[in-house]
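To whoever picks this up:

The parser on our side crashed when reading a file containing two proteins. I've narrowed it down to the boundary between the first structure block and the second sequence. Both blocks are reproduced below exactly, byte for byte. First block:
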Amino acid sequence: SARVAGEIGGLAPLDTAPPIRAAPGYEAYLLGKHWLARRTPEGLMRAIAWFNEAITQNPEYAVAYADLSTAYALSLTYRYDIGVESYRAARLAWVMGQRARRHAGLEAGPGPRRARLHWRAG
């Protein structure tokens, strides 16, 4: 909690609160959420870094994949230069969304190729 408070700034951790056992990667995930909410180029770049850190700490962290997907998608929506070429950002958004679904126990969606085949079979 001290790490999150230090990153966000102006917040002090509560020493009187009982310690909470959070899932591995939870603090990194919270920092990613904080930066994602800013909706600025810097915020999205920091959010992506923190979500990747959360995933590194906990490779099955479905919501971290989902919000990483959101960060890439927002960079395209706002046309921000976050150091990732736009087609690559779109691909990463889709891939991270699929990983989020898989780690959440949901069946992965059809994907672009299967959707085209379904349309042709029609």
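<<boundary where parser fails>>
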Amino acid sequence: MIFSPDYVGVDVSKKHLDLAITGSSRLRVSNNPAGMARLVQKISSLTRPHLVCEATGSYTRLMARSLSQHGIALSTINPRRVRDLARADGLLAKTDAIDAAAILRFAHLMHPDPDPPLRSKCRGNGRSGAPAPPDGGYAGHGKAASRAP
């Protein structure tokens, strides 16, 4: 038996996230650590949560880190693809709730692949949130994966 993901459409902004969940009312959470805790708590009842949002740059970083820490799938998609689908559906109005619902519809139709999980800690410049490389980040710039002490 194949289980399909429980998609959640997320419209991301600097101050808040608007969520569209199948069979549920819409939800707005703050785009801050307290909001992320509420988000994770809300979607914990889903069997296989898979959040989908438009690529918005830095506004998605906190959510991506929080979801990665909890092992929850996230797909960031090109906003134009969602807008084109909404336009094809005749959905010309643009609000946060409508955008979240359009992203959810896109997810159900297109089944986007999850983004790679984020590293918990990053070497070098100290920034976190970069996708982990396929080798786990140990191969380096062509150097051997293991080094003698």
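After patching the parser it read the second block fine. Confidence is low (pLDDT under 50) at residues 122-149. Strands lie at 6-12, 16-21, 27-30, 49-54, 73-77.
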